[in-house]
Predict the 3D structure of the following.
Amino acid sequence: MKNPMNTLSKSFLLLAAVASLVLNTGCSTTPRAKPANVVDRTSGNSEPTPPGYYRVKRGDTLARIALDNGQSPRDVAQWNNMSNPNQIEVGDLILVKPPAGSKSAVKPAVKPPTNIDTAKTDAPKVDAAKADTPKPEASKEMVAEPGIRLSWPAKGKVTEEFNDKNKGIDIAGKLGDPVTAASDGKVVYAGNSLRGYGNLVIIKHDNTYLTAYAHNRTLLVKEGDAVKKGQKIAEMGDTDATSVKLHFELRVNGKPVNPTPYLQ
């Protein structure tokens, strides 16, 4: 027969142990009643981006950043002292404008139209210093009245016009059809690292105008080559596309514009 005193003692000790555990647990959780502040550093940097710079976003590549700012990927890498252009991180500040003293500027390839109205040739000469002064509405006039004349980069039917989604025009053709430079310039990119463009050539014509030729089967030029208007630079293809075509873009100060008014 069990001793009632022993049973009572054991019950008392068990209750005391449970009470002690509850008190200790309550004391240990008291400081954590308020959640700790957590800073999400993956959501981007809230600091303003300085003029002339671009802040890297998720999914960006150096080639894409350069194209959207009308620059050469090699120049952008050089301006930012990048040993490996493929290693950029979200939030990085990338200089996208030539620094002071840069030699990367491309001389203008724009030539005066040959069909100038003779009545305008008798106009008085303008002082050179005044001629270099930019006009307040120059950018708007430039888009409305093209300052560069482009030749058609390929022969074929335009299957898609310029719009909000299509940043250029699509010209249908046959596999291997010639793709030619729309104007004199310098090849600043030749490769396939821009998603959605396939084998791509980008030509910089001056510090304002840049043209892009996408989905090629074969590239016939390399970065740094000087090209002439009408020179064959690639063969039409369907790389990163659902059909054989040339996707042609014109960028003015890095911004895509409708190239059709510039073509002749």
Observations:
- The two ends are 114 Å apart (CA to CA).
